[in-house]
User: Which sequence fits this backbone?
């Protein structure tokens, strides 16, 4: 009776990776639904409320100063080394390279440029919106604060909102946005939320950002993720244009290659290579005289049965010329006696 082994989750993952890549006929592209519009509106209101609370130097600014004077990096100095490494998950360069490598592999497997183009569109929106807000509000960080209790706005700084936090929300959240199944989207959304939350609190721990900077960074990154469905038509057009450009370049390359061959082409017989002259050395080896066999003496030869013995039977010594044969003299000298 044949029994089949139950496939584990790891076996199913490798079986999916071993399948032949095919370009998906229909990709589940998130749409700007009513639920998403409500979330986008609420997040935008939260964003504007944080900015207004900092501008008017409200209780949020006083909380910023209290956290700064608390100096978390001194209160919990034992985890300083871990936070220094963990905060790298919010830096633009390392995170963009890691996520781009994964999305590039997905693009190659699915024969589509949408994952990479979506990442590029989200990073472009991040640079434009967050960069403009940083330069426009010009807030100084805790290490460069000048007046205790002030909001430090308009002094040439560039820390409001937190770029580390917004970058963590967008870079890791794009994996959840591009997930192919609802279950994967839920798990990746939770993982990206925890990662971005940890990155934001790490900057507060190190004293590089105010607490309000982190709150505004979370809102800025979430706004970009919620607004991505509005960019999907442009992403689809860009993908179509890039594939058309590739096809035109291939067609142009294929049409120019035969034109480079001169017409008419005169074909000449190929000369015989030097290695083919080996048969001419054959007569040289055949012209040598055959050597005599080393086991035969020169002269006529007869069969062994026809040869005459050189010495008489019973003696291996040569016969003496003056000596009579053995037994003849003895018989002559012996007297004959009668019985």
Assistant:
């Amino acid at each position: 009776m044949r029994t089949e082994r139950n496939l584990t989750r790891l076996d199913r993952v490798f079986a999916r990776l071993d399948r032949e890549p095919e370009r998906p006929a229909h990709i589940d592209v998130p749409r700007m639904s009513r639920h998403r519009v409500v979330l986008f509106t609420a997040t935008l209101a939260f964003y504007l409320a944080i900015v207004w609370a900092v501008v008017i130097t409200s209780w949020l600014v006083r909380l910023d100063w209290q956290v700064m004077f608390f100096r978390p990096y001194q209160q919990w100095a034992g985890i300083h080394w871990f936070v220094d490494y963990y905060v790298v998950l919010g830096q633009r360069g390392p995170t963009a390279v890691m996520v781009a490598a994964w999305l590039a592999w997905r693009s190659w497997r699915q024969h589509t440029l949408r994952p990479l183009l979506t990442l590029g569109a989200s990073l472009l929106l991040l640079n434009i919106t967050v960069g403009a807000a940083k330069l426009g509000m010009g807030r100084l960080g805790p290490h460069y604060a000048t007046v205790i209790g002030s909001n430090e706005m308009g002094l040439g700084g560039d820390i409001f909102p937190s770029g580390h936090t917004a970058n963590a929300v967008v870079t890791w959240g794009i994996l959840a946005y591009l997930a192919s199944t609802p279950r994967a989207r839920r798990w990746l959304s939770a993982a990206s939320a925890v990662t971005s939350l940890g990155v934001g609190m790490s900057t507060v721990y190190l004293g590089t950002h105010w607490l309000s900077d982190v709150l505004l960074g979370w809102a800025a990154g979430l706004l970009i993720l919620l607004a991505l469905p509005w960019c999907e038509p442009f992403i689809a057009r860009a993908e179509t244009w890039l594939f058309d450009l590739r096809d035109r370049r291939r067609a142009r390359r294929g049409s120019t290659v035969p034109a480079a061959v001169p017409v008419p082409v005169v074909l000449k017989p190929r000369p015989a290579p030097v290695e083919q002259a080996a048969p001419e050395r054959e007569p040289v080896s055949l012209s040598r005289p055959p050597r005599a066999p080393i086991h035969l003496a020169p002269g006529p030869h007869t069969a062994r049965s026809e040869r005459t013995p050189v010495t008489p039977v019973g003696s291996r010594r040569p016969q003496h010329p003056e000596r009579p044969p053995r037994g003849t003299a003895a018989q002559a000298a012996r007297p004959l006696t009668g019985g």
Summary: DSSP finds 13 helices and no strands in the chain. Residues 232-259 form the longest helix (28 residues). Residues 257-267 have pLDDT under 50 and may be disordered.
